Amino acid sequence: MTADELIALVRSYNPATRDALIRDAFAFGAEMHEGQFRKSGEPYFMHPVAVAEILAKQQMDDATIVTALLHDTIEDTRASFSEVEKRFGREIAELVDGVTKLTNLQLSSIRTKQAENFRKLFMATSRDLRVTLVKLADRLHNMRTIRSMKPEKQAQKARETMEIYAPLAGRMGMQWMREELEDLAFQVLNPEARNSIIRRFIMLQKEAGDVVERITADMRLELDRADIRADLFGRAKKPYSIWRKMQEKDQGFSRLSDIYGFRVITETEADCYRVLGVIHQRWRAVPGRFKDYISQPKSNGYRSIHTTVSGRDGKRVEVQIRTREMHEVAETGVAAHWSYRDGLRVENRFAVDPARWIAQLTERLETGHDDEDFLEAVKLEMYQDQVFCFTPKGEVIKLPRGATPIDFAFAIHTRIGSACVGAKVDGLRVPLWTRLKNGQSVEIITADGQRPQASWLEIAVTGRAKAAIRRSLREEDRERFVKLGYELVRVAFENVGRRATDKALRTAARALGLDGMTELLARLGSADMTTREVVQAIYPELAEQGHAQEVAQERAVAGLSEGQSFRRAPCCQPVPGERIVGITFRGQGVVVHAIDCPALEHYEEQPERWLDLRWQEGTHAPVNTVSLDLTLTNDAGVLGRICTLIGEQSANISDMAFLDRKPDFYRILVDVDLRDAEHLHRVMTALEAETQVSSIARHSDPARALPATAAAPAGA
After folding, report:
1. Keywords assigned by UniProt (predicted)?
2. Which is the most buried residue in 24, 242, 371, 479, by most CB within 10 A?
3. Does 479 participate in catalysis according to the annotation?
4. Active-site option among 75, 269, 331, 673
5. What is the pLDDT of residues 45-59, one digit of tens each?
């Protein structure tokens, strides 16, 4: 596209455009990028021009078009902020600088880093949303031309697009851009699945003909009979949209019915409801699939009626009904705020101030201290629609769709949420995991002494509720960690012939730069620090000595007769540091069980077979195998990350088996060779902290215990 063609495009919706400004920006950008080429071999300046064209088709103002032409000049050329400001003005210079800062954010795959970058993105966005609009258009053109990149770079950009830019475009009301970004990313991340869906569409069209054309004709006939003037459009849904439905419903393509969408554009709001009546009279409505966003608009100004009906041959079709004004906002999203028509800003009564949404989101999340909580809350805000519920006093509480009474309680006040023990919905007692619906009245039942439960994290949906629950659990965990830390350090000090007195622990805390003995114990209990570091801080010579002496495996257990052999029970897999008991077997030595092993019930009537045992003091070899039951997110690289984490804790994986596989998660059983209970605790804590580990538990299998009749009592 030449400068004249771009100006002509802008003038088509804004006759009063400053064509000299756009022409100057075009010339300046071309000069600055002279000699630069894209990976595809094309002149680099073709990219900024393409970005400007995308935004011109959204009818954006002159400042945004010029920013698109210059968006890479400060970052990639000799141009400076002051030079751009002098030539094009402060507003454009700040917009270009804002895009440069967003571009320089390295959106890492490490979630905490990603969350921090997400926070920065929203901080920058809150100042002028046009920065984000240019960045989205920039990403769209890059995704359209992504095939010229290296495969690993394609995958990285596609994942970033799917996780951040596509949902951001959707939340800002630019649904067309979201769909295209998702489909382009899907083409890179899972080309086989996308091609499969396209092939099925082609086969379906050959078998059944043009379904869209037939249903459109049927709808047009019904609208004409009711004398309703409206435009009607139909299309098959995008491949990624269909793939997502297949994953959510765990269904194959052949069983998926609602793969077609239709849009009716009317003259008036009253006509929208008339169209709805006509469609529901002609076709059967699908229960639970009706949404009225006209009476309850989305926060980005989106208004439309959504309904799903059973069409020809039982095929489900989704129908969206809206006025032309509503359609303009639905198509353009927040960009409608800057749209021009006939040289004047469009006064669309449904367009919202885009900065208000982003400012509210930023303000709500800016106070959070936990990057994980921030990222989770942002993603929930972007992916979820909303429901409106009422308190008993009639106050409206706005929540994401899928929210529960727990979310409702924390939305009122953290104190109410923390003390919640039950809920009534429309006067009826309901479980806390009940999903709330629009218009319901919710009453929260509280009790003194109640504290948030860990299971609530699975029930809660909102970032606010989850953050408050995690905060309470962390405080509760701290008390537990302090107790556990004291037990660990007590044993460690005894192993080197010393006592873990308060004075010794305070001295160690000072030496390690920690804020007191309690902080030291909490870090020990949470595996953020090892007991060897504490001993080293005040008894360095003893720490080295204690570390150097390793207990021989054949004498790891004390309390056995001379020459008597032992083996660890496979049911409970006890490790040094845990209380143990032995059961004798004739000709097989002693089987060592944890003191709380359920298998010991088999031997309650045979006290003569029991031996009082304990582990030898000192450092044990890492040969004690423990089985860990892990539930992991089914994502690329997760298993490798888990193996790395275990290796970082100086533990060895001796075996691994898959217990269950699902589209979004899988369960595995990992056998890890460990020194003692402290080593086990460190490994489990490291894994539990990994965001892609949904659950972790020590595996116990009573069925593997030797039955009471397996052998006669030793010495009987």
Report:
1. Kinase, Transferase
2. 242
3. no
4. 75
5. 999 999 999 999 888
